[in-house]
Amino acid sequence: QAEPGHDHQHVRQGRAAAPAGLPRYDRARHEALVDALIATFTPQWVQAHASNSRAEPLFVCGMFRSGSTLAEQVLASHPRVTSGGELDVLPRLAATALQPFPGALASLDAARLDALAAQYLGELRRRFPRADLLTDKRPDNFLLIGLIKALFPRARIVHTRRDPLDNCLSVFFLRVDPRIAYAGDLLDIGHYYGQYRRLMRHWQSLYGDAILDFDYDAMVRDPRPAIERLLAYCGLDWDDRCLEFHRAKTAVKTASVWQVREPLYARSSGRWRNYERPLAPLADLLAGER
With contact defined as beta carbons under 8 Å apart, do 149 and 207 qualify? Predict the structure, then answer.
């Protein structure tokens, strides 16, 4: 089914109007950040740097518009789980106590890691004093997975994924946040996506099955197996309410709010086919990721 003509016009142009005064996406700078993260978090660094915390915080992360809100809403339908939403605690630690990041990590010792882990947990307890299992669902925490695992070796990390073209198109259409510089240009989104995948391959080489891939497209095709796997990974027993996640009363503060208030639908999977010709340059850029 064809989509509205103005959407096709935006996709053909490949660029959405950006608010004045906001910075443009710097591809070289972002590549340098990913290079620095990969160079810092080596197998040797990981082996030598870990806090003594036995806490098992639960993080949900991935590209924006990749299904993180859906994954959190499913989890929050379980009676043991409280939805934390997009918490700022970990990025704030990286931006203050650990500057310059990631360079400052070279001098971290176990005592400092223990203190940072306690600071994170203390902040969550202050905000959610009654929570049993709390979700920290900030998509761009995928940049901080190495830090997460250093602070919390037993942390559970749910990594949300979907078809790359659908993912990039959704970011472009919804402009998740005007401060996210790459979101206004399809090829900038494609570049950012390629760097995200490069970094995720590195994290998965370090941590393997400690990171769970949650496939949005598989979820909408056949929910129960995906939900069973998600709950089992999180150490949760099956609960039928997780299949009825759209009925949950959890507050949702992201662009996905209306989607998670409906039963599952598959119309967002394969949406890119409505724009196949104008998306050809993006498809070429993402060819290795599909």
Answer: yes
